[in-house]
Design a protein that fits this description.
Layout: H1 2-12, H2 14-28, H3 39-49, H4 62-73, H5 79-97, H6 119-129, H7 139-152, H8 194-206, H9 221-224, H10 247-280, H11 286-301, H12 304-313, H13 317-324, H14 330-342, H15 353-367, H16 378-382, H17 396-407
Helix pairs in contact: 1-2, 3-13, 4-5, 4-6, 5-7, 10-11, 10-12, 10-15, 14-15
Length: 412
C-alpha cells in the first residue's frame, strides 16, 4: 500500500516526479565502484559540467531518435495506445540499428523486444535538460499531456493512419526532420547530419540542469563544442581548449580534477585495507602488494595544490547539490574533510592507522547494514574481484563520445 501511495504522490506533482525519476535513474545506473559514497558529490559536478548527459547514454543521435519515436507515437488516439506505440517504434529502431553490431552503442541489441529499459527512458531527462522535451513528468504523464492538449484544441482524433494536421507532441518543433521511413530507415546509423549536429550543439551549449539557469555558467559545452576535431584526452581537464573556458567553468573543472585525484587515493587505500584483510584470511599477499605499489605511485603524483584547493572549496558542494537537486550528505563532506587532512602528509598513508580507520569506517557505515562490507564480512571479501573503484571522470567518457560524434558530422 505504501508503494501505491508513493507513486500517486509523484504523479501528482510533475516537478517532484522529475526529481524522483532522475534519482531512480541514477540508482539504476549506479556505479558499483562508488565504495565510499561520494556519488552525489561527483554527480552534482558532472550535472553542471555536462548537463543533459548520463553514464548510461550511448550515442548523441539517440536524442533525435527518441524524439522522433515520441512524435510518431503521439499521433495515436489515446494515452495507453501512445505508450504502446512508443515501445513498438523503439523496438523497430533497435532492429534497424542491429546491423551496426555490438560495441557501437546500440541500446538493446541483444535483448531486442525483451529490453527492460528503452532508449526513451535513458534519454528522457536529458531531453528535458536540453530543452527538446517540453512536458514535465514521466512518459506516462507525457502521453496524457499529449491527449489532453489535443482535446483542449478540439482537433481531430488520430488513428492508425496517422495525423490529419500537425499536433503538439510535447517536444520542440524546430528539430531536424527524421530520415525517410524512420524508424525502419535502411542503413540507419549514428552519424549525425550537418543540421542535426548544428542543432544539438546549440542545445548542449544552452543546456542547464537547474530551472533558474544559474548552473549554465559551469557548462563546458560552450567551449568544447567549438573544437571540431577528434578528442583523445583521457580526462576533461586535458581538453585542448581548457584555456579558453570562462572563469567559473574553468574553476569548477579544476576543482573536479583536484577532487578526483585526491579521492582516488582514498579508493586505493580502501583496496589496501581489504587486501590486508584477505591476507589475514589466509589468501595470497599478491593483491596487497599490487595496491601498495599503486598507493606509492599515487602519493608521488599528488599535488599539495590539489589538496589545498579541495580543502578551500569543500563548503561549495552544498551549493552544487542545491543547483542540481542532489542531496549532499554532511557525513560525506566530513569524510572528505578528514581524508584531505590526512593527505597533507601522503607519504605516511600506507602505514597510517588513522587514515585506514577513516576509510574503513566510511565503508562500514555505508555497507554493514546490508551485509556487504568487505571490511567486516569474510564472505563479502571472498566475492571481491581484487580491486574496487577508479578515478572519477564526471561522465567525460560519454561527453567525449558525444563531442567526437559532433565533430565527425559532415561539414562539422
Amino acid at each position: 500500500m505504501a508503494s501505491v501511495n508513493f507513486l500517486g504522490w509523484i504523479d501528482y506533482d510533475a516537478r517532484h516526479e522529475e526529481d524522483i525519476l532522475r534519482a531512480l535513474g541514477a540508482a539504476k545506473g549506479h556505479d558499483a565502484r562508488d565504495e565510499l559514497g561520494l556519488g552525489t558529490m561527483r554527480d552534482s559536478m558532472a550535472d553542471l559540467l555536462f548537463p543533459g548527459l548520463s553514464t548510461i547514454q550511448q550515442r548523441p543521435r539517440y536524442f533525435f531518435f527518441v524524439q522522433w519515436c515520441c512524435e510518431l507515437a503521439a499521433a495515436h488516439s489515446d494515452a495507453h495506445r501512445i505508450r504502446d506505440k512508443l515501445r513498438e517504434y523503439e523496438v523497430a529502431l533497435i532492429k534497424t540499428l542491429s546491423h551496426l553490431g555490438e560495441g557501437e552503442g546500440v541500446i538493446g541489441i541483444l535483448s531486442q523486444e525483451e529490453l527492460e529499459r528503452m532508449p526513451s527512458e535513458i534519454y528522457w531527462n536529458g531531453l528535458l535538460v536540453l530543452g527538446m522535451r517540453q512536458y514535465g513528468g514521466n512518459r506516462q504523464r507525457w502521453a496524457r499531456h499529449v491527449v489532453a492538449d489535443r482535446l483542449s484544441r478540439q482537433t481531430d482524433v488520430f488513428g492508425d493512419s496517422g495525423p490529419k494536421v500537425r499536433q503538439s507532441s510535447g517536444f520542440a518543433i524546430d528539430r531536424p526532420d527524421p530520415p525517410v521511413g524512420f524508424p525502419s530507415t535502411a542503413a540507419l546509423d549514428f552519424v549525425l547530419t550537418h543540421p542535426e549536429a548544428e542543432y544539438l550543439r546549440k542545445r548542449l551549449v544552452d543546456a542547464c540542469v537547474d530551472r533558474s539557469g544559474q548552473g549554465r555558467r559551469f557548462n563546458l559545452f560552450g567551449t568544447f563544442t567549438k573544437y571540431r576535431r577528434t578528442i583523445t584526452a583521457a580526462h576533461a581537464w586535458d581538453h585542448p581548449r581548457i584555456d579558453k573556458l570562462p572563469g567559473e567553468a574553468l574553476e569548477l573543472l579544476l576543482l573536479a580534477a583536484a577532487f578526483a585525484k585526491l579521492m582516488h587515493g582514498a579508493v586505493i587505500l580502501y583496496n589496501v585495507c581489504v587486501a590486508r584483510k584477505q591476507v589475514e584470511d589466509g589468501l595470497s599477499p599478491e593483491n596487497l602488494e599490487r595496491h601498495l605499489r599503486s598507493l606509492t605511485e599515487w602519493t608521488g603524483e599528488l599535488s599539495p595544490a590539489d589538496v589545498d584547493l579541495v580543502r578551500q572549496r569543500l563548503v561549495e558542494f552544498h551549493e552544487f547539490g542545491r543547483l542540481t537537486r542532489h542531496r549532499i550528505d554532511p557525513k560525506a563532506i566530513a569524510f572528505v574533510e578528514r581524508w584531505t587532512d590526512c593527505c597533507t602528509t601522503p607519504h605516511r598513508l600506507a602505514d597510517s592507522v588513522a587514515a585506514s580507520r577513516i576509510v574503513c569506517d566510511r565503508e562500514i557505515f555505508l555497507k554493514k547494514g546490508a551485509g556487504t562490507s568487505r571490511i567486516v564480512s569474510k564472505k563479502a571479501r571472498a566475492r571481491w574481484g581484487g580491486e574496487s573503484g577508479g578515478m572519477m571522470d564526471f561522465r567525460w567518457a560519454i561527453a567525449k563520445r558525444c563531442l567526437n560524434d559532433l565533430a565527425a558530422a559532415p561539414d562539422a
